[in-house]
């Protein structure tokens, strides 16, 4: 009888423990549950959506996209009619450029062959040209939620949406404006030029379904519609995350796991591999600039770039100072122990997430294998045979 009582007490105690644990599990903070979900979800990295959204006031259509393409390649948007958007964002380089800092007005050539004209007095552009591929998804979070009308743009977040971004290079001295026009009048000049071209008048009216549609706002909208259409969302990683487990190799999968476990996905997260926030890293200044670039709100912070299509978009970082992916990862490995390359930044200013990376040299090549699985070369590379202005397509890039 005594043994039966003891056995019954043991059973009741066990049931009580189970009940307590069950209650504790029900009361477990959401953050803990979230962390477990994150770990199972590869650190909140996931495939890009198959389709993109447009702002309510700028719905996409074929006519608007093709109009935007013509404007993108037409040097008429630059002060001296020598530079187009495509000069520094060419499809050959993943709609980016293979220079540390771009050469805008008063230059000739394309990519690494581009140089300033003789007797030049125009500076290099302030920062490295980012790829336009997948900018339709800028601002997308881990749940694939985003607002095209509020999409963060530029290294310092100074614009929201492709529509707001589109005309800012036109106004910038070293990018497209040049010395011929003041910043406050250049856009009026561009609008007047386009209004005088009958072919553009017709194309604008068709794209926007209204008369006299050539306005600065509609130029921005057409350029934004074209740039938003530049999608590269069929990488091996995307296919893997959508269910094709043969899309990535064993080594690439290992690299993905290391990418997460080392902490890279803390900032390079979501479908675009960016949290779209600014971080201080301490990258060396680029001596091509005559000033110190202090970044977002003069804090030396710069927006986390996407890691997609890195194969086409070297060199890296906000000023192009790091030439290879190996060098980028080595830079992060060195952050913990070596002196910062930028003498204007104290170690206390460097982002904590960057300092906490558990990156080891032995894992760098495997992580790079994974990063190469993010490349997708099946994007739109169509270049128009001519532009309505009659100027050289792309500007002086030959």
Name a few traits of the molecule.
Cytochrome Bc1 Complex, Chain D, domain 2, disordered N terminus, 6 strands, two-stranded antiparallel ribbon, 398 residues, globular, single chain, 2 domains, mainly alpha
How are the secondary structure elements laid out?
Elements (H helix, E strand, L loop, with lengths): L1 H25 L3 H11 L21 H12 L11 H4 L18 E2 L6 E2 L35 E2 L5 E2 L1 H4 L2 H4 L1 H5 L5 H13 L2 H11 L7 H13 L7 H6 L8 H12 L16 E3 L20 E3 L21 H10 L17 H4 L8 H9 L26
Helix pairs in contact: 3-9, 3-10, 12-15
**SSE class:** mainly alpha
Distance between the termini: 100 Å
The CATH homologous superfamily of the largest domain corresponds to Cytochrome c-like domain
Number of strands: 6
Low-confidence stretches: 1-41
Helix count, per DSSP?
15
CATH fold name of the largest domain, please? Cytochrome Bc1 Complex, Chain D, domain 2
Mean pLDDT: 90
Overall radius of gyration: 25 Å
CATH class designation of the largest domain: Mainly Alpha
* Number of discrete domains: 2
The largest sheet has its strands arranged as 1-2
CATH architecture designation of the largest domain = Orthogonal Bundle
| Portion in beta strands | under 5%
Characterize the largest beta sheet: strand count, sense, and whether it forms a barrel: 2 strands, antiparallel
Q: What is the succession of H and E elements? A: HHHHEEEEHHHHHHHHEEHHH
């Amino acid at each position: 009888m005594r043994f039966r009582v003891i056995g019954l007490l043991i059973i009741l105690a066990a049931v009580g423990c189970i009940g307590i644990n069950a209650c504790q599990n029900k009361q477990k903070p959401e953050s803990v549950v979230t962390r477990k979900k994150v770990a199972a979800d590869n650190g909140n990295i996931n495939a890009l959506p198959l389709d993109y959204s447009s702002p309510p006031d700028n719905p996409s259509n074929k006519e608007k996209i093709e109009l935007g393409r013509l404007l993108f390649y037409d040097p008429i948007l630059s002060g001296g009619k020598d530079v187009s958007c495509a000069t520094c964002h060419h499809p050959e380089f993943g709609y980016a450029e293979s220079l540390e800092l771009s050469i805008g007005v008063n230059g000739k050539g394309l990519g690494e062959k581009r140089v300033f004209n003789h007797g030049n007095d125009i500076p290099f552009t302030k920062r490295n040209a980012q790829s336009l591929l997948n900018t339709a998804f800028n601002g997308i979070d881990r749940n694939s939620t985003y607002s095209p009308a509020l999409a963060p743009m530029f290294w310092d977040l100074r614009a929201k949406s492709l529509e707001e971004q589109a005309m800012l290079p036109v106004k910038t001295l070293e990018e497209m404006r040049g010395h011929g026009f003041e910043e406050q009048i250049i856009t009026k000049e561009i609008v007047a030029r386009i209004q005088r071209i009958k072919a553009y008048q017709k194309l604008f009216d068709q794209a926007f379904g209204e008369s006299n549609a050539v306005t600065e706002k509609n130029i921005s909208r057409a350029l934004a519609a074209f740039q938003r259409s530049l999608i590269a969302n069929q990488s091996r990683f995307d296919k893997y995350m959508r269910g094709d487990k043969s899309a990535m190799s064993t080594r690439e999968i290992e690299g993905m796991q290391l990418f997460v476990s080392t902490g890279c996905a803390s900032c390079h997260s979501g479908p675009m591999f960016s949290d779209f926030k600014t971080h201080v890293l301490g990258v060396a200044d680029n001596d091509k600039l005559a000033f110190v670039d202090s970044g977002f709100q003069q804090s030396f912070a710069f927006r986390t770039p996407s890691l997609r299509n890195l194969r086409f978009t070297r060199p890296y970082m906000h000023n192009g100072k790091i030439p290879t992916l190996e060098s980028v990862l080595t830079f992060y490995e060195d952050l913990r122990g070596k002196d910062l390359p930028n003498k204007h930044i104290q170690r206390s200013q460097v982002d904590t997430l960057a300092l906490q990376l558990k990156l080891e040299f032995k894992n760098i090549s495997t992580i790079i294998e994974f990063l190469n699985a993010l490349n997708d070369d099946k994007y739109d590379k169509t270049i128009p045979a001519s532009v309505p202005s009659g100027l050289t397509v792309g500007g002086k890039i030959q």
